[in-house]
Amino acid sequence: MQNPLDSLWGTVISGFVLTLVLFVIITKLIGV
Amino acid sequence: MEFLPGLERWFHLMAGVMWIGLLYYFNFVQVAAMKAAAADNTAAGISKHVAPRALLFFRWAAVVTWLTGAALLGSHFVPAFTFKPGYALIGMGAWLGTIMLINVWTLIWRNQKKILGIVAATDAEKVTARRVAFLASRTNTMLSIPMLFFMASGAHSGQFGF
Predict the structure, then answer these.
(1) Is the ipTM value over 0.90, yes or no?
(2) Does some domain include residue B161?
(3) pLDDT tens string B24-78
(4) pLDDT tens per residue, range B103-129
(5) Is residue B162 part of a domain?
(6) Whole-angstrom Cα distance, residue B147 to residue A21?
């Protein structure tokens, strides 16, 4: 499987996905 | 002294723009430009005259951004980094920025010194250094997206609807 960071758009999309994952962790597990 | 947080925020934003601006320059412009330049033997101009200057402002802007951010947090520093109630958003932004600063100095700059010939390295070491520096830079570009989201939402609670 190709590393998404090798592609610029893979990097940007990974950043948005990571934002969503961290946001869910913060709002559901830690609390804002 | 009530003007101090305003000054810290101003310098934090200016340094942050320089840091992340240069990070985006490296990732959105220079990587592709170096490939094209290598094809017509003009890459030396970028690696000799542009990259060292860009890296100088890049790595020190990262330090100033972190220091002014820490100063801006002040007594909120520990509650933010330990995700105390009410601090989770800015705490996540602060942690992401801290990881990015560590990446800059331990992975990107250390390996760029080998790539640019500032420290001695064999050809094999340069190949490894190029790959590590590239992935660290791409990692920081990826991390900058949630970092900016959490910094903005932490400083302007309510504007994202929570």
Answers:
(1) yes
(2) no
(3) 999 999 999 999 999 999 999 999 999 999 999 999 999 999 999 999 999 999 9
(4) 999 999 999 999 999 999 999 999 999
(5) no
(6) 13
Note down the domain range covering B41: 4-155
Q: Which residues of A touch B (CB under 8 A)?
A: 3, 5-6, 8, 11-12, 14-16, 18-19, 22-23, 26-27, 30-32
Asked if B24 reaches chain A (Cβ–Cβ under 8 Å), the answer is no
Place of tokens 């520096």: B133
Residue B24: which of B58, B64, B66, B68 has the closest Cα?
Answer: B58
Is the CB of residue B8 less than 8 Å from the CB of residue B71? Answer: yes
Task: Give the count of domains, chain B.
Answer: 1
Report the predicted TM-score, pTM, of the whole model to 2 decimal places.
Answer: 0.93
